[in-house]
C-alpha cells in the first residue's frame, strides 16, 4: 500500500466537560456558582494531536474506539467538520470522557472516567497494520487499548511517537509506550529528576529523541546523548488554558520532523504551537495553522542551546 497518510493517530479520542473554577486547588464547599458556564465538547489528547497535525497541513488519520452514544457522535462530528479521516472501532463501554477543572491562571485538573475502557477491548490487528503501513508515521496515545497494538505497529517498521504526559518515571502502565516509540514526549510535572528519566528511556528503549516539556520553563530535548534546553516561547495573547498545550507541542514537533527540519527547529515549532494553545479556551478547538506557525517562528525568540 502507498503512503497516503502522513500521520496515523492511534487512540485518545473522547469528550471533555470543561468547568472554569475560581481557584485550584478548589476548596471544599457545598456548591459553587460557575459564571462562565459548564460546557461539554469533543476533544481529548488524540483528537488534539490530530487537529494540530491537520491544521499544519499533514494528511492525518485517526483510529480509536467510540461508543454508540451522544459523546461518540460529538467526536465523529468534530472529525467530519474538520475533514480529518476517522476509523471507528465499536467501544461497548462507551466513548471515553473526562471533566477538566480550569483555574483562572490556565492550570488544569483532569478527572478521567476509566470505566469506559474494558480489559478485553482491542483494535483489530488487520486494521492497525493496514493503516500503519499506509502512513509515514504513527503517533500513539497512552489510552487503552493502544498498548496491545504496539507489537503490531513495531512489526510494520513505521516510526512511532508517543506522549507519556505526567508520567512519574515508575508507573509500569507507561513503560511499553516509553520503550517502543522512536520519539517520546512527556511532561516534567511528576518527575523528580527529568534528565535521569529521559536518559533511562533512551537507554532502555528505542527512542532516538526524548522531549520533556516544562510549561513556562520551556522544555528539554535529548538526542544523541546530548541534552538541549528549549526556551519557552512567549504566548501571543494572555494565557487562559493549558489544556492541549502538550498535544500542540507534539503536533508542531512532528510537523518539523516530517518536514526534515533539524531537531532544534522541530523543538521551536513545538514550543510555538504549545504557546498558542495556552491562549485558546478549552471550550474551543483552534490549533495553530501552518502559515501562522512559520510566521511566528520567523520572529526573534530566545536561542535554543
UniProtKB/TrEMBL annotation:
Enumerate the Pfam families for this protein: PfkB
The species is: Streptomyces nodosus
Q: Which UniProt keywords apply?
A: Kinase, Transferase
State the superkingdom.
Bacteria
Spell out the SUPFAM superfamilies in the cross-references: Ribokinase-like
Q: What is the lineage of its organism?
A: Bacteria, Bacillati, Actinomycetota, Actinomycetes, Kitasatosporales
Describe the location of the Carbohydrate kinase PfkB domain by residue ranges.
Answer: 204-285
User: What protein is this chain from?
Assistant: Adenosine kinase
Q: Which Gene3D superfamilies match?
A: 3.40.1190.20
Task: Cite the GO molecular-function annotations of the record.
Answer: kinase activity
Amino acid at each position: 500500500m502507498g503512503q497516503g497518510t502522513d500521520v496515523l493517530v492511534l487512540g485518545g479520542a473522547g469528550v471533555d466537560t470543561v468547568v472554569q473554577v475560581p481557584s485550584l486547588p478548589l476548596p471544599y464547599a457545598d456548591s459553587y456558582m460557575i459564571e462562565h458556564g459548564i460546557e461539554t465538547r469533543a476533544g481529548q489528547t488524540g483528537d488534539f494531536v490530530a487537529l494540530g497535525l491537520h491544521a499544519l497541513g499533514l494528511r492525518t488519520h485517526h483510529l480509536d474506539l467510540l461508543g454508540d452514544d451522544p459523546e461518540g457522535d460529538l467526536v465523529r462530528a468534530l472529525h467530519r467538520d474538520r475533514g480529518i479521516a476517522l476509523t471507528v472501532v465499536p467501544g461497548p463501554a462507551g466513548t471515553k470522557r473526562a471533566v477538566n477543572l480550569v483555574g483562572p491562571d490556565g492550570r488544569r485538573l483532569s478527572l478521567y472516567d476509566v470505566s469506559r475502557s474494558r480489559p478485553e477491548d482491542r483494535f483489530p490487528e488487520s486494521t492497525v497494520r493496514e493503516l500503519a503501513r499506509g502512513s509515514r508515521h504513527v503517533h500513539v496515545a497512552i489510552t487503552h487499548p493502544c498498548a496491545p497494538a504496539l507489537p503490531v505497529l513495531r512489526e510494520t517498521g513505521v516510526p512511532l511517537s508517543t506522549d507519556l504526559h505526567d508520567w512519574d518515571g515508575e508507573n509500569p502502565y507507561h513503560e511499553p509506550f516509553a520503550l517502543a516509540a522512536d520519539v517520546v514526549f512527556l511532561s516534567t510535572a511528576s518527575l523528580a529528576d527529568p534528565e535521569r528519566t529521559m536518559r533511562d528511556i533512551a537507554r532502555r528503549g528505542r527512542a532516538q529523541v526524548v522531549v520533556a516539556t516544562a510549561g513556562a520553563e520551556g522544555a528539554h530535548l535529548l538526542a544523541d546523548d546530548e541534552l538541549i534546553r528549549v526556551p519557552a516561547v512567549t504566548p501571543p495573547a494572555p494565557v487562559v488554558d493549558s489544556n492541549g498545550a502538550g498535544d500542540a507541542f507534539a503536533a508542531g514537533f512532528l510537523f518539523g520532523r516530517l518536514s526534515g527540519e533539524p531537531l532544534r527547529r522541530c523543538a521551536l515549532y513545538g514550543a510555538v504551537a504549545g504557546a498558542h494553545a495556552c491562549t485558546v479556551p478549552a471550550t474551543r478547538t483552534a490549533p495553530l495553522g501552518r502559515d501562522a506557525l512559520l510566521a511566528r517562528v520567523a520572529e526573534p525568540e530566545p536561542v535554543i542551546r
